[in-house]
Design goal:
The complex is a heterodimer. Chain A is an alpha/beta fold. Chain A has seven helices and seven strands; from the N terminus they run H-E-H-E-E-H-E-E-H-H-E-H-E-H. Helix content of chain B is 38%, strand content 15%. The chains are: A alpha/beta, B alpha+beta.
Chain lengths: 185, 567
C-alpha cells in the first residue's frame, strides 16, 4: 500500500475573490470540487491570499499543486505550468501576485528540509482586476482548461478523479451570479 | 545636499506602500507615506445581506482574515442593539487572541527580524557561546549547544544553495547591522522554532473556526459552534482540552524566547530607542468582551494625548460615543474627491487621481483623525493605554522587557519613554503577545467554567427592522484599532466603511496639513547609505504595515526598488 501512503496531495487555490480574475485560483479549485469527487489522499484548500497558515499543510504533503493568478508578461488569459526545477527562476522574475507569500513559504520549507517532492503551479494571466466577484468572460473560459491541467497533474501522480453525477454550484460561483443579476438590474 | 529616496514597495507582505524621504546631512528631513493601490473593496457589500458581510470582509486581507470577520458582525450587532451570548463572546475572544499571538510571532521573526539580524553573520558564530548567551537570558528549552549547531549547519546548506528566499531582501553586511554573530545565531534558531510554534496558534483558530485558513463559525448574533457532548463536530470537552494543549505549547516560547529576544536584540541597538517616535498620540479600543452587551472588557481601550499618560480617556463599551463620534477621515491629500474630514458613516470614495504631488494629493490611503488629531494605533498604543490604566499584565511584561534591556545593555537608566521608538514598537508587540497568552488562558478557563454551569447558548437570532439603522464594530486587532461602519436600510447594506489600523498609521497629511504616524516617525532617522535605506525600512516595518486591506492593488508588475536622486 506504498502508493496510498505517498498519495498525499495538496491542491491550493490562491487569490482574492473580491478582485475578479485575481481570484481565479480559488474559483478553479472550488469548481474542481463541485465537478468531481475527491478521493482520500487529495486535499483541496481555498488559500485565499493567506500565507503562513498554509505552511503547516504544505510541509506535510508529498505533492503540491497551486492554482493562482500570475503575471508573466504574456497576454491576458495565457495559461502556464511551472513545476519543480523551474520554480526558483519563476520567483526571481516575480510573476505571481502572491509571490511574496508563496515564495517565502517554499523557501522556508527548503530551509526546514521539508519541501514537497513535487510542486506545480498552474497559473492564468488575469484580464481584469476590478472590484467584483464575477470573473471576466475570458477567464471563465480559461477556467475549464485550468481544471483540465490540474486533472492531468493529478493523473501524473496516479490519481484519477471521478466526475460527480450531478455537478454542484459552489459558494463563490453563486455569489458571482447574484452580483451579475444585481449589476444588470 | 538633499537626497530624495523612494522605496516602493516597502512591505514583505501583500500590499503596496511607497515611502519617499528627503535626506539632509544623513538624516531624514521630510517624509511622505503613500498607498499605491486604490481601495474601495467595500463597494462589493452594497445591497447585500448584512448577515453575510463578514464572509466578504474576511477576504479583504490575507493576513487579517478572522479580524475582519469578527469586526463585521460586531458592526451589524451594534446597529441592531443585539446582545451576544457569553459563550459566543468567549469563543470569539479565544479565536482573535490566538490569531494575535500567531500574527505577532510571525511579524517579529519572519517579517522584521532580517532588518536587525544579519543572517549570514550567524555562520561565523560559535554555537557553544551562542547557547551560553541564550541560556543566560531565559529558560527556553531549545537554547542548547546542539540546537545552535544544528541550526548553523542547516543555514550553511541553505545559504550555500544560493537561494536565499526570505533572506534575499536582507541588507547583510550593512553598516547599521550591529549584532554579534552569536546573537544572530540565537535569533535564527528562534526564527526556525517560531515556524513550528506559530502553528499551534493556527490550530486553535482552526478548531473553533471550523475551517482553515478562513473561519466559518462567525454569525451576526454569536457563533455557529454548538456546545455539547455527542456529535464530533460540536465543541466538547475533548476539543477544549486540545485547545488547552496548544495554549500550553505557545506560552513558553512567547514568554521565554520572544519576550527576551526583542530587548536582547534591542540592547545592541540602543540608539534605535531614541529614533522613530511617532505622532505621540495613542488610540486603542477595548476588546475581549466578558458580558453579552459588551460593557465589560479584559483589554482596555482609550486615548492618550501627546504622550502624557495622565491624559488617558478610556473607551469602555461597544458603541462608546467617545469613540463613535471622534473618528473622521480626510482626503485632502488622498486621491479622492473632496477634502473635508467626513465621519465614516458618511464616507465617500470617489477617485480623483493626480500625480504624486508633494504638497497636494499623493496617496490612495485617507487620513483618519480622532477629534481632529492624528493618532498612532497598534501594540505600542495598546501597551501605553494598558499601563496608563493600571492593567497588571501590561505593566508586568513591560517591566520584564525593560529589565532584560537594561541587563543586556548594561545601562540601568533607560527611561520608559524610550518605548516610543522604532525598537520600542517591537518591544511593545512582544509585551502585548505575552499579555495575549494570559488573556487566552483566562478566556479558555471562563468558557470551560461557563459551559460547566449548563449554559450552552451560542447564538441570538438577529431581526432587521424596516428603515435605516447604523452601527460601528471595533476590534483591538494585531495592528491596532480596527473599526467597521455600516449603514443598513430595510435589512440591506447601504454603506460600509472599514477604517483599518494601517490607515491610521500610514495615512498621508490630513486636512490641516499635519503628517501621519509613519511620516512623523521617519523624521530625523539616520540614513547611512541612500542606496540601501535599511533605516527607513526598520522604522516603517516597526508598525507592522499591512496595507492589503488599506488599499487595493492595480499594478502587479512593480518590482522591489529603491530610487535615489540628488536634489
Amino acid at each position: 500500500m506504498q502508493n496510498t501512503q505517498q498519495r498525499n496531495i495538496l491542491v491550493i487555490g490562491m487569490g482574492n475573490v473580491l478582485m475578479q480574475d485575481e481570484g481565479i485560483g480559488v474559483r478553479v479549485v472550488e469548481e474542481l470540487e463541485q465537478r468531481y469527487s475527491v478521493p482520500p489522499g487529495v486535499t483541496l484548500v481555498d488559500g485565499g491570499t493567506t500565507g503562513m497558515e498554509l505552511f503547516e499543510p504544505m510541509r506535510h504533503c508529498h505533492s503540491l499543486i497551486v492554482a493562482d493568478a500570475v503575471n508573466t508578461g504574456q497576454p491576458p488569459g495565457s495559461l502556464v505550468r511551472i513545476a519543480n526545477d523551474d520554480i526558483p527562476a519563476f520567483f526571481q522574475t516575480k510573476l505571481s501576485n502572491h509571490q511574496l507569500g508563496l515564495s517565502d513559504l517554499l523557501a522556508l520549507l527548503t530551509l526546514k528540509g521539508e519541501l514537497p517532492e513535487h510542486i506545480a503551479i498552474i497559473g492564468m494571466v488575469p484580464h481584469s482586476l476590478e472590484q467584483k466577484l464575477g470573473l471576466t468572460e475570458q477567464a471563465e473560459q480559461g477556467m475549464d482548461t485550468m481544471i483540465d491541467m490540474i486533472l492531468i497533474e493529478l493523473d501524473d501522480l496516479g490519481v484519477e478523479l471521478e466526475p460527480r453525477a450531478q455537478p454542484r454550484s459552489g459558494h463563490w460561483r453563486k455569489e458571482a451570479e447574484w452580483e451579475a443579476l444585481h449589476l444588470c438590474a | 545636499m538633499t537626497t530624495r529616496i523612494t522605496v516602493d514597495p516597502i512591505t514583505r507582505i501583500e500590499g503596496h506602500l511607497r515611502i519617499d524621504v528627503e535626506v539632509d546631512n544623513g538624516k531624514v528631513s521630510k517624509a511622505w507615506s503613500s498607498g499605491q493601490m486604490w481601495r474601495g473593496i467595500e463597494q462589493i457589500l452594497i445591497g447585500r445581506d448584512p448577515r453575510e458581510a463578514w464572509s466578504y470582509t474576511q477576504r479583504f486581507c490575507g493576513v487579517c482574515t478572522t479580524v475582519h470577520a469578527i469586526t463585521s458582525v460586531r458592526a451589524v450587532e451594534n446597529a441592531l442593539g443585539l446582545e451576544v451570548p457569553v459563550n459566543a463572546q468567549l469563543i470569539r475572544n479565544i479565536i482573535q487572541t490566538a490569531h494575535a499571538i500567531q500574527d505577532h510571532i510571525v511579524h517579529f521573526y519572519h517579517l522584521s527580524a532580517v532588518d536587525w539580524v544579519d543572517v549570514v553573520s550567524a555562520l561565523d558564530a560559535d554555537p557553544v557561546a551562542a547557547a551560553k548567551l541564550a541560556e543566560s537570558l531565559s529558560d527556553w528549552s531549545l537554547n542548547g549547544p546542539h540546537e545552535m549547531k544544528a541550526v548553523q549547519q542547516r543555514l550553511k546548506a541553505f545559504v550555500g544553495s544560493g537561494q536565499l528566499g526570505p533572506f534575499a531582501s536582507g541588507y547583510w553586511g550593512h553598516p547599521a547591522m550591529k549584532l554579534p554573530p552569536e546573537v544572530n545565531l540565537m535569533a535564527v534558531a528562534h526564527y526556525l522554532q517560531a515556524l513550528d510554534i506559530q502553528n499551534h496558534a493556527n490550530k486553535i483558530v482552526a478548531i473553533l473556526g471550523g475551517k482553515s485558513p478562513h473561519i466559518q463559525n462567525v454569525a451576526v448574533g454569536g457563533v455557529s459552534n454548538s456546545i455539547g457532548h455527542d456529535a464530533p463536530s460540536v465543541l466538547n470537552i475533548e476539543r477544549l482540552m486540545l485547545i488547552k494543549n496548544f495554549i500550553d505549547k505557545l506560552e513558553p516560547f512567547v514568554k521565554s524566547a520572544y519576550l527576551t529576544d526583542v530587548p536582547a536584540v534591542g540592547a545592541f541597538y540602543l540608539d534605535w530607542a531614541g529614533i522613530g517616535g511617532g505622532v505621540n498620540n495613542y488610540l486603542t479600543v477595548p476588546d475581549c468582551p466578558q458580558d453579552a452587551a459588551g460593557t465589560v472588557f479584559d483589554l482596555p481601550g482609550g486615548y492618550i494625548d501627546n504622550g502624557d499618560m495622565s491624559t488617558l480617556r478610556p473607551i469602555t463599551t461597544f458603541g462608546d460615543a467617545y469613540f463613535r463620534d471622534g473618528v473622521a477621515e480626510s482626503s485632502k491629500h488622498s486621491w479622492y474627491r473632496g477634502g473635508d474630514p467626513l465621519h465614516p458613516w458618511d464616507g465617500e470614495t470617489e477617485p480623483e487621481y493626480t500625480d504624486f504631488q508633494d504638497e497636494g494629493k499623493y496617496s490612495w490611503v485617507k487620513a483618519p483623525t480622532f477629534y481632529g488629531k492624528r493618532a498612532e494605533v497598534g501594540p505600542l498604543a495598546d501597551v501605553l493605554v494598558g499601563v496608563a490604566g493600571g492593567h497588571p499584565g501590561y505593566t508586568k511584561y513591560l517591566n520584564a522587557a525593560m529589565d532584560t534591556l537594561k541587563g543586556v545593555s548594561g545601562n540601568p537608566n533607560i527611561p520608559l519613554e524610550a518605548v516610543n521608538s522604532t525598537i520600542g514598537r517591537h518591544a511593545a508587540r512582544a509585551v502585548r503577545c505575552a499579555v495575549m497568552i494570559d488573556t487566552l488562558k483566562d478566556q479558555w478557563q471562563k468558557l470551560v467554567d461557563n459551559v460547566a454551569t449548563g449554559d450552552v447558548d451560542t447564538f441570538n437570532s438577529p431581526v432587521f427592522p424596516r428603515g435605516e439603522i447604523k452601527g460601528v464594530g471595533f476590534h483591538q486587532a494585531p495592528r491596532g484599532a480596527l473599526s467597521h461602519w455600516v449603514v443598513i436600510e430595510d435589512g440591506k447594506i447601504k454603506n460600509y466603511q472599514a477604517v483599518v489600523p494601517s490607515t491610521w498609521n500610514a495615512g498621508p497629511r490630513d486636512a490641516d496639513g499635519e503628517i501621519g504616524p509613519y511620516e512623523s516617525s521617519l523624521l530625523d532617522n539616520p540614513v547611512a547609505d541612500p542606496e540601501k535605506p535599511l533605516e527607513v525600512l526598520r522604522t516603517v516595518h516597526s508598525f507592522d504595515p499591512c496595507i492589503a486591506c488599506a488599499i487595493h492593488m492595480v499594478d502587479t508588475e512593480q518590482q522591489e526598488i529603491v530610487k535615489v536622486k540628488a536634489l
